[in-house]
Amino acid sequence: MTVLKAGSRLKSQVDDTELIVTKAPAGDVELLIGGHPAIDIKESAADGLSLDPAHSEGTLLGKRYGREAGDIELLITKGGAGSISLDGETLAPQESKPLPSSD
C-alpha cells in the first residue's frame, strides 16, 4: 500500500509505462501496473517479474487515466503493455472534455 501525491512520477516494473499523478486519492492505495506495484521513477524494478496476462490491456501515451469516482487522475508519459489498476479496479482512459464555444 502506498500514499500517492500529486506530482509523483511512477513507472512499471514489467513494461515501459511511466506516469505522473495529477490528482491523488486520500489514504493508502494499491496502484498496480501490469499486475505489479508501481514504483518511483528513480527506483529499480525487482528481478524476476513478468507482465500478468490479466493486466495486459496496455496504456496510451498522453492519455489521462482515472476512475468514475474522480478521485484519481494519472497522465501517461510513456505508454506500455501493462494496464493500470487501483485497489483492484482497472483504470480506463478518460474522455476528452469539450471546450466551450467562443461565440
Task: Describe what you observe in this structure.
- This protein has 103 residues and is mainly beta.
- The protein has one domain.
- It is built from no helices and 12 strands.
- The chain has strands spanning 2-3, 9-11, 18-23, 28-29, 31-33, 36-37, 39-40, 64-66, 73-78, 84-86, 89-90, 92-93.
- The protein has a 6-stranded antiparallel beta sheet with strand order 7-2-3-9-8-12, with no helix packed on it. A 4-stranded antiparallel beta sheet has the order 6-5-10-11, with no helix packed on it. A two-stranded antiparallel sheet has the order 1-4.
- The termini are far apart.
- The relative contact order is 0.27.
Helices, strands, pairings?
Layout: E1 2-3, E2 9-11, E3 18-23, E4 28-29, E5 31-33, E6 36-37, E7 39-40, E8 64-66, E9 73-78, E10 84-86, E11 89-90, E12 92-93
Antiparallel strand pairs: 1-4, 2-3, 2-7, 3-9, 5-6, 5-10, 8-9, 8-12, 10-11
Name some characteristics of this structure.
single chain; 103 residues; mainly beta; six-stranded antiparallel beta sheet; four-stranded antiparallel beta sheet
Work out the helix count.
0
Describe the global form: globular
Number of domains: 1
Task: Flag low-confidence runs.
Answer: none
Largest sheet: 6 strands, antiparallel
Q: How many individual β-strands?
A: 12
Brief sketch in words of this structure:
0% of the residues lie in helices and 35% in strands.
